[in-house]
């Protein structure tokens, strides 16, 4: 049986560990400083030491004595390591650290902000134990804990809210109420620690649920009177959203089930009330983005040149396992550069999907070319192969050869690009694959954007990953990307002075935006999983409606389609367009943003004189389709709220 020593006997985590684990010995910070601590530890001969010896972060404020902060961090840890250095039985140390370290800013080192200084010293503790364990060849688990509650809790914000409600006393919260936090029950942390003890594990783990909730939502769940709550701005620089990345917990120690916070509030029995509006698709920013931006600003690389841009291009190529890449200012710029690269000019014909965002088509006009629009098919909402071939046959009869075909994958679902590509090859027309909405989606595990002659992506604010703005061009031909990079930097020639032979454009992405995009790209697969959870939630709900179909296509046995679930959309079998607009307005009053599907390009006034081929499927999608909130950081409370309001209004359309 493993012998376990826990340092930090007064914490609720330590006492909870004692409740669940046998053969465990608790010691406090004062015990570590005592003369007989080393002898006691030698006598126990522990295999594992769990180090919890920290004051709770929320007990520190601007009035806390500086000496006390240092004492409770590095000083005790240093003495502890010296006293256990001769004990040979220790095989693993589990260090309880803070999730706030993932959001540690340069300003945290200002002595005036003692709470932030405390975090800096805690980071130093991680480094001290890392060096010690490395030197001693001991496994080290650094558990960066998120917001604990439950059991012996007497300091968490949840405890304070409950106490305020029970005693009808006012509570002061240093938070604006809209910040999202990841709350994890102490029992779930204990279960994770048991797995750390029982398995071969080491490294840094984020110990949280992977789901966040705003403080406002937390307050409402508790049922506390709003009049009892006072919000104040914290002096500590904080990020708006903080939640654990639980992938490492799931993969390495197989922890994936956590307590639901709403069940903790047993008195909660009222309907959920939304505090702020739920939008269609908002950015999901985590700490890595802040860290990357600060690193970039510190380096002074803030222009459209720098290491972050170069690395983003490598990262995108590696993620797609394909070709070469150029980072640019937008998806629109990416399409424009692709058209220029293919030689599209005045009076040339370019075939374009009609059911798409206008950015797919506008660059055709930039080049003074002529768009021809093609309808979509009903499975994927992407370009209809039959309509494309009919168009190409017709054009051939007129001795017209289009310079390019622009195919757009829609709302995260891959289109039938393999059929479209075959047709383009047959008629010897280049294919531009507009994957602005499908980064991470795939067909037979081949990523969207890599099928055509040139692929494009967008990092606009509402996309599955974002840099606030930005895009990329990808191609298997290095020569294409070399030319596109030149075009995007004003076609400057390689001279010491500014020399230009060709017209160029200011389309190169900035190094700052690239730093954000890089952090977002690393989290892309996690964001896809979150959006898929939204889709599954909606799909389960809409099963009972005979008049509503949820838009989904998984392909066939030959071609397996995997969506990135950017948007979840529904299509009514029967509904008038003014009714659809009325539903959107009703939901808007409930602070829920919804929207009709794309209005086809051939219906837009700017393209009214352009040719169009198809069966008006795209008009049906526009007039009877609805996009639902699909952000990757939607909480379960927001989803349930959306469901309750859909329930309120959808019954009239059955």
Helices and strands in order:
Blueprint lengths: L3 E4 L4 H9 L3 E4 L1 H5 L3 H8 L3 E4 L14 H19 L7 E7 L15 H23 L2 E7 L1 E3 L7 H11 L3 E4 L5 E2 L1 E3 H13 L4 E5 L5 E2 H8 L6 E4 L8 E2 L4 H7 L7 H4 L22 H13 L7 H14 L3 E5 L2 H11 L7 E5 L8 H5 L3 E5 L10 H13 L6 E5 L8 H10 L3 E5 L7 E2 L2 E2 L6 E5 L12 E5 L2 H11 L22 H12 L1 H19 L5 E3 L10 E2 L5 E5 L4 H13 L5 E2 L14 E3 L3 H8 E4 L7 H15 L4
Parallel strand pairs: 1-2, 1-3, 3-4, 4-5, 5-10, 6-9, 7-12, 8-13, 15-16, 15-17, 16-27, 17-18, 18-21
Antiparallel strand pairs: 8-11, 14-22, 19-20, 19-24, 21-22, 23-25, 25-28, 26-28
Helix pairs in contact: 1-7, 4-5, 11-18, 12-18, 13-17
Provide a quick synopsis of the model.
It is built from 22 helices and 28 strands.
Textual characterization of the structure:
This protein is 38% helix and 17% strand. By secondary structure, it is an alpha/beta fold. The protein has 3 domains: 4-270, 3-Layer(aba) Sandwich (Rossmann fold), CATH 3.40.50.720; 290-523, Type I PLP-dependent aspartate aminotransferase-like (Major domain) (Aspartate Aminotransferase, domain 2), CATH 3.40.640; 526-653, Aspartate Aminotransferase, domain 1, CATH 3.90.1150. The strands form 7 sheets. The protein has an 8-stranded mixed β-sheet with strand order 14-22-21-18-17-15-16-27, with helices on both faces. It has a 6-stranded parallel β-sheet with strand order 2-1-3-4-5-10, with helices on both faces. Strand 19 (442-443) and strand 20 form a beta hairpin. Helix 1 (12-20) crosses helix 7 (186-198), helix 4 runs parallel beside helix 5 (114-136) and helix 12 packs parallel to helix 18 (511-522). It is globular, with a radius of gyration of 29 Å.
């Amino acid at each position: 049986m493993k012998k376990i020593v826990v340092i930090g006997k007064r914490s609720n985590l330590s006492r909870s560990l004692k409740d669940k684990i046998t053969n465990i010995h608790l010691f406090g910070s004062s015990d570590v400083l005592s003369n007989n601590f080393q002898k006691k530890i030698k006598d126990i001969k522990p295999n594992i030491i769990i180090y919890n010896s920290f004051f709770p972060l929320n007990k520190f404020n601007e009035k806390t004595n500086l000496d006390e902060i240092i004492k409770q961090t590095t000083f005790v840890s240093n003495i502890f390591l010296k006293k256990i250095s001769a004990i040979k039985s220790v095989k693993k140390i589990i260090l309880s650290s803070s999730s706030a370290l993932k959001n540690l800013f340069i300003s945290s080192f200002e002595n005036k902000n003692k709470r932030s200084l405390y975090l800096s010293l805690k980071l130093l503790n991680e480094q001290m134990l890392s060096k010690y364990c490395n030197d001693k060849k001991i496994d080290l688990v650094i558990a960066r804990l998120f917001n604990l509650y439950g059991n012996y809790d007497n300091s968490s914000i949840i405890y304070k809210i409950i106490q305020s409600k029970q005693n009808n006393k006012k509570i002061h919260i240093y938070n604006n109420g809209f910040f999202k936090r990841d709350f994890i029950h102490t029992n779930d942390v204990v279960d994770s620690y048991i797995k750390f003890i029982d398995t071969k594990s080491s490294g840094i783990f984020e110990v949280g649920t992977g789901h966040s909730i705003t403080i406002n939502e937390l307050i409402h769940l508790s049922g506390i009177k709003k009049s009892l709550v006072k919000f104040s701005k914290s002096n500590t620089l904080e990020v708006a959203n903080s939640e654990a990345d639980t992938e490492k917990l799931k993969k390495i120690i197989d922890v994936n089930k956590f307590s639901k916070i709403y069940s903790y509030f047993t008195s909660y029995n009222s309907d959920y009330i939304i505090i702020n509006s739920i939008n269609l698709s908002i950015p999901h920013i985590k700490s890595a983005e802040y860290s990357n931006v600060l690193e970039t600003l510190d380096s002074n690389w803030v222009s459209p040149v720098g290491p972050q841009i170069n690395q983003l291009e490598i990262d995108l190529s590696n993620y797609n396992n394909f070709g070469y890449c150029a980072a640019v200012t937008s998806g629109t710029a990416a399409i424009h550069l692709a058209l220029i690269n293919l030689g599209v000019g005045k009076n040339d014909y370019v075939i374009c999907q009609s059911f798409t965002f206008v950015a797919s088509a506008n660059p055709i006009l930039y080049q003074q070319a002529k768009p021809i629009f093609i309808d979509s098919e009903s499975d994927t909402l992407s370009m209809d192969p039959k309509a494309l071939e009919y168009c190409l046959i017709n054009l051939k009869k007129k001795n017209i050869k289009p310079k390019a075909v622009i195919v757009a994958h829609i709302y995260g679902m891959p289109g039938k690009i393999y059929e479209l590509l075959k047709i383009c090859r047959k008629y010897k027309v280049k294919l531009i694959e507009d994957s602005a909405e499908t980064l991470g989606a795939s067909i037979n595990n081949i990523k969207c954007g890599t099928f055509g002659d040139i692929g494009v992506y967008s990092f606009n604010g509402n996309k599955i990953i974002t840099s606030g703005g930005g895009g990329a061009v990808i191609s298997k031909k290095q020569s294409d990307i070399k030319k596109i990079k030149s075009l995007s930097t004003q076609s400057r020639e390689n001279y010491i002075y500014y020399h230009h032979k060709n017209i160029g454009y200011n389309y190169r992405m900035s190094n700052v935006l690239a730093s954000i995009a890089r952090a977002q790209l690393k989290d892309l697969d996690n964001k896809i999983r979150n959006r898929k959870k939204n889709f599954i939630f909606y799909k389960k709900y809409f099963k009972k409606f005979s008049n509503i179909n949820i838009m989904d296509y998984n392909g066939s046995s030959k071609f397996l389609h995997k969506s990135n679930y950017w948007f979840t959309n529904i299509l009514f079998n029967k509904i008038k367009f003014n009714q659809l607009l009325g539903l959107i307005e009703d939901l808007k009053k409930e602070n829920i943003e919804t929207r009709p599907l794309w209005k086809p390009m051939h219906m837009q006034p700017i393209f009214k004189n352009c040719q169009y081929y198809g069966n008006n499927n795209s008009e049906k999608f526009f007039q009877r389709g609805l996009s639902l909130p699909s952000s990757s950081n939607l909480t379960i409370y927001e989803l349930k709220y959306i469901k309750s309001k859909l329930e309120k209004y959808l019954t009239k359309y059955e």
